[in-house]
């Protein structure tokens, strides 16, 4: 199993310092990049519900032209893109909401045009701006996407709607809270093991709650006292204290609807329904109860990791798209040159120390 080089100095060192059983200078480093069981995978209920909702929304339009346009936008653009993105994974709550918001925005605009005796083909820039000032106007960004898509596919002509480029996280990057939370989750035995592991995977490895929810025991490789977990294409070697927690979770996990032994359950976080994992909304609620802010804390983790690692390694380690990794790297100010120089210096120092050791 190929393993990526260790993270740059300091990448998770501070979580193991400043007191606690893993303090006293003990370093908490991250080793970077350490199946199917033959049964049918569980049905993606969220995707099924989304497809049904889209069909009902499209069929609610009586005009054939409107139905054709809305069907093309919802099914051939958004659903096809969603299926390609999730692959053999399940649809997340955020992905579901994103598609619904975009389709709702298109539906609202087409409905308003029909009430005004207009179509996309006859809509002018003045009409579009009139809709944007209407009290019923919502989903500003999503409406802009539909307008640009309509122009691109020649359903509309001469319409312009600007877009806002993402420049980085909007919230505060609180690194001190990140390390404090990591130390607390590593050392507080009063918290449930599942909550501690889920929180640490989010705080230390910037994992989405939806990804954490879908983790299975096959994603974890435990050998002796070490453990590796796969988020993307390359396994991640876990630090010893977190590896111990994961080992405990694998051995003791049990959902509310669980009957039998942990070996019968494929999910790392089994849920209350038979054969289903703990939902992302349930995990989010449990993390909130122990003081973890999933969205803000994940942004802090991504920002920190992106400042220290090249985008390609970040993408392989965390399982995020390479373009997402590049955007976060730009936002954090990290770059390939700095990382490459640091690795080169460490290699040179190690080589020089080796020569000094063998010198007569």
What does this structure look like?
The chain has helices at residues 45-59, 64-86, 93-115, 125-132, 140-152, 175-187, 193-205, 209-213, 240-252, 280-289, 294-308, 311-318, 322-332, 336-358; strands at 220-223, 226-229, 236-237. By secondary structure, the chain is an all-alpha fold. A 3-stranded antiparallel beta sheet has the order 1-2-3, with helices on one face. Strand 2 (226-229) and strand 3 form a beta hairpin. Helix 1 runs antiparallel to helix 2 (64-86), helix 2 packs antiparallel against helix 3 and helix 7 crosses helix 9. The relative contact order is 0.12. The model is unreliable at 1-37 (pLDDT under 50).
Largest sheet geometry = 3 strands, antiparallel
- Elements, N to C (H/E): HHHHHHHHEEEHHHHHH
- In spatial order, strands of the major sheet run 1-2-3
Helix-residue proportion: 40-55%
Strand content: under 5%
Number of separate helices: 14
- What's the N-to-C terminus distance? 38 Å
DSSP strand tally: 3
Query: Unreliable segments (pLDDT under 50, ≥5 consecutive)?
Result: 1-37
Oligomer: single chain
Question: What's the rounded overall pLDDT mean?
Answer: 78
Shape category: elongated
Rg over CA atoms, rounded to whole Å, is 24 Å
What structural class results from the helix and strand content? mainly alpha
Short summary of the structure?
The protein has 360 residues and is mostly helical.
Topology:
Elements: H1 45-59, H2 64-86, H3 93-115, H4 125-132, H5 140-152, H6 175-187, H7 193-205, H8 209-213, E1 220-223, E2 226-229, E3 236-237, H9 240-252, H10 280-289, H11 294-308, H12 311-318, H13 322-332, H14 336-358
Antiparallel strand pairs: 1-2, 2-3
């Amino acid at each position: 199993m190929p393993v990526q080089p260790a993270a740059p100095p300091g990448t998770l060192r501070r979580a193991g310092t400043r007191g606690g059983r893993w303090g006293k200078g003990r370093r908490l480093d991250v080793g970077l990049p350490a199946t199917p069981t033959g049964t049918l995978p569980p049905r993606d209920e969220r995707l099924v519900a989304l497809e049904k909702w889209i069909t009902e929304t499209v069929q609610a339009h009586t005009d054939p032209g409107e139905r054709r346009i809305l069907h093309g936008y919802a099914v051939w653009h958004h659903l096809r893109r969603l299926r390609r993105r999730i692959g053999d994974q399940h649809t997340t709550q955020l992905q579901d909401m994103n598609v619904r918001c975009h389709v709702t925005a298109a539906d609202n605009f087409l409905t308003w045009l029909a009430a005004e005796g207009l179509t996309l083909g006859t809509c002018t820039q003045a009409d579009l701006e009139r809709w944007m000032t209407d009290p019923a106007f919502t989903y500003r960004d999503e409406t802009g996407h539909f307008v640009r898509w309509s122009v691109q596919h020649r359903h509309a002509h001469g319409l312009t709607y600007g877009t806002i480029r993402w420049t980085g996280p909007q919230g505060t990057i609180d690194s001190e809270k990140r390390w404090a939370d990591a130390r607390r989750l590593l050392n507080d035995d009063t918290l449930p093991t599942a909550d501690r592991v889920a929180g640490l995977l989010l705080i230390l490895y910037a994992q989405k709650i939806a990804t954490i929810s879908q983790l299975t025991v096959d994603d974890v490789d435990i050998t002796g006292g070490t453990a590796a977990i796969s988020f993307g294409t390359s396994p991640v070697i876990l630090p010893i204290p977190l590896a111990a927690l994961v080992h405990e979770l694998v051995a003791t996990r049990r959902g509310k609807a669980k009957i039998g032994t942990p070996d019968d359950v494929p999910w790392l976080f089994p849920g209350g329904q038979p054969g289903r994992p703990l939902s992302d909304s349930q995990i989010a609620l449990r993390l909130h109860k122990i003081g973890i802010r999933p969205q803000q804390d994940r942004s802090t983790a991504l920002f920190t990791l992106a400042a220290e690692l090249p985008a390609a390694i970040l993408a392989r380690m965390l399982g995020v798209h390479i373009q997402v990794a590049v955007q976060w790297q730009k936002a954090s100010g990290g770059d390939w040159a700095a990382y490459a120089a640091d690795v080169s210096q460490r290699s040179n120092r190690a080589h020089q120390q080796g020569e000094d050791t063998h010198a007569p």
